[in-house]
Each structure stands twice: as structure tokens, then as C-alpha cells.
């Protein structure tokens, strides 16, 4: 049986996209899943018919909701073996054009929310590792964590911060049986852009015209499931070739990007505006 079988795994952001695909994949492998999303109705629709799934309406940018998610997991199952940090927001555009509330919301969910949920879940993950030999944290990051480019500067900063957190966590808990992973996708066919600009789809039908271009969410879900069965902590790019984004931080490539991309700021702004308009109108 897969290592994720019969384990209790929390997946944030399970109503659509990567989170929804991850819930379906883990359930298929026999895991008992607790998942959350801000839209409780959409979440209930997404997990309807999936055995062993508990749905919790919760916002991972909210401290009370984070605590409630962990409490609901323990009340339902009495333990926690895995945590998939998937919930996230993005915003496409230049920093000078961003509303302050957009900056605060992205940081609160992508970085603070992920760190704080891990913090309150950690005692239970460590207990699971001691009792059953392993526990896992999987952070859904982005290739933007490795190469920060406009129009995703603030989003990239949160994912780079998440990468730093994961590296530090590995050095705290690896010897105690907790594996800490990142899955770093390239562009994924999700509602990410529409949600980040305040237009979350209300149904699957509504979402079809708002999806960003990219790989199927199921490919990212496969990587998440692979981390939960790995004998060591992993950093995985999806697709694999997307790991080349790391070269963006190598001198002299980074200096070339500094000069070249900054000269294209006006064009980047316009392309971002068009991409957003196509998904929110």
C-alpha cells in the first residue's frame, strides 16, 4: 500500500485547482483527508462523494480559522500525519500599481498563514513521527521562488520566503522524523489569477473561462503525493525542466535580467492587465 494510505492529511485550498486535485489523489490512495477553503459551498461540492474527506470552511489568512482547522482534524481523527500548504493568492502587475490591501492579503495567506499553520500543527506532526515513524509538510511553492520577475514580484517574494522557511524547518525537524518538502510548479491551469484579483469563480462552470494557462493541476497533485511517499525531504519542479528557473539567480544571468526586464516594465504592465481582464470580465 502507498505510504500515504490510511494517513491523516490536511490539504488547504481544496475547493479547486491544485488543492482539489491533491485531495482526489490522496483519497484514491486511501488517505483520510481534511481540507478547507473560504467558500464552504464550493468546497462541499468539490468533495461530495469522496470517501474519508472532512470539509472545513476556513480562511488560512485568519488565525482563528487556522486553529479551528487543526482542532477539527484532531476531533475527527485524533492525529495528524501530513500537512499540504496549498492555499495561496497571486496578483499580476507592477508593485507601484498594487493596492495596499492586495499586498497585505497575499503576504497574510501565502507566507504568514503557511508558517502559522505549520507552527500550530507541528506538535501533532512530531507526535505522529514519533509514534508511526514519519510525518510530512508539503509546501506548494512556485518557480517564482527561484527567479523573481515582474509582474509577480510580491507573489515571488512570498514564495521565496516560504522556501526559506522550508529550509529552516528541515534543519529543525529532519532528525525527528518530519520530512519537509516544496513542490514548485510553473504555470498551472487554475483560477489563481482570477482569485488573486478578487473574482473567485462561484462554480466549475464559472471557472472555465477564468483559468490561467499551464499544466494540469493533477500533475502537481502527483508531485505532492510523491513527496508524501518519499524517504527524504524533496524539492520538486513541475514540470521537471522548470527547475532551470534557478539559473535566474546565477551571476551574470541575474544581472542581465535586472537590466533587461526593468526596461520592459511598460510592456509587462500592459500584458499583465490584458491577462487579468480576460479572466475577471
TrEMBL record:
Name the family.
Belongs to the short-chain dehydrogenases/reductases (SDR) family.
Q: Does the keyword Oxidoreductase apply?
A: yes
Q: What is the lineage of its organism?
A: Bacteria, Bacillati, Actinomycetota, Actinomycetes, Geodermatophilales
Q: Which Pfam families match?
A: adh_short (PF00106)
> How is this protein named in the record?
Short-chain dehydrogenase
Sorted alphabetically, which CDD domains does this protein's record hold? SDR_c
- Look up and give the organism this protein is from: Blastococcus aurantiacus
The organism sits in which domain of life? Bacteria
A Gene Ontology molecular function term for this protein is: oxidoreductase activity
The alphabetical list of record keywords is:
NADP, Oxidoreductase
InterPro entries the UniProt entry points to: NAD(P)-bd_dom_sf, Sc_DH/Rdtase_CS, SDR_fam
Q: Which PANTHER family match?
A: DEHYDROGENASE_REDUCTASE SDR FAMILY PROTEIN 7-LIKE, RETINOL DEHYDROGENASE-RELATED
Amino acid at each position: 500500500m502507498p505510504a500515504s494510505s490510511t494517513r491523516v492529511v490536511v490539504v488547504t485550498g481544496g475547493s479547486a485547482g491544485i488543492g482539489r486535485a491533491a485531495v482526489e489523489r490522496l483519497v484514491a490512495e486511501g488517505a483520510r483527508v481534511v481540507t478547507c477553503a473560504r467558500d464552504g459551498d464550493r468546497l462541499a461540492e468539490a468533495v461530495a462523494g469522496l470517501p474519508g474527506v472532512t470539509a472545513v470552511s476556513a480562511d488560512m489568512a485568519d488565525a482563528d480559522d487556522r486553529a479551528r482547522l487543526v482542532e477539527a482534524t484532531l476531533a475527527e481523527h485524533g492525529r495528524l500525519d501530513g500537512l499540504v500548504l496549498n492555499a495561496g493568492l497571486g496578483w499580476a502587475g507592477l508593485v507601484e500599481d498594487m493596492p495596499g490591501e492586495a499586498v497585505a492579503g497575499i503576504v497574510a495567506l501565502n507566507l504568514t498563514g503557511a508558517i502559522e499553520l505549520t507552527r500550530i500543527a507541528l506538535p501533532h506532526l512530531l507526535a505522529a513521527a514519533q509514534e508511526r515513524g514519519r510525518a510530512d509538510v508539503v509546501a506548494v511553492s512556485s518557480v517564482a521562488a527561484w527567479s523573481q520577475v515582474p509582474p509577480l514580484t510580491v507573489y515571488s517574494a512570498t514564495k521565496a520566503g516560504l522556501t526559506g522557511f522550508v529550509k529552516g524547518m528541515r534543519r529543525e525537524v529532519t532528525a525527528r522524523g518530519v520530512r519537509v518538502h516544496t513542490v514548485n510548479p510553473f504555470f498551472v491551469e487554475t483560477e489563481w489569477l482570477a482569485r488573486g484579483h478578487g473574482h473567485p469563480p462561484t462554480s466549475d462552470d464559472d471557472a472555465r473561462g477564468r483559468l490561467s494557462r499551464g499544466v494540469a493541476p493533477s500533475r502537481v497533485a502527483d508531485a505532492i503525493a510523491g513527496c508524501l511517499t518519499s524517504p527524504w525531504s524533496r524539492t520538486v519542479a513541475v514540470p521537471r525542466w522548470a527547475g532551470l528557473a534557478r539559473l535566474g539567480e546565477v551571476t551574470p544571468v541575474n544581472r542581465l535580467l535586472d537590466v533587461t526586464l526593468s526596461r520592459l516594465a511598460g510592456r509587462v504592465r500592459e500584458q499583465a492587465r490584458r491577462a487579468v481582464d480576460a479572466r475577471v470580465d
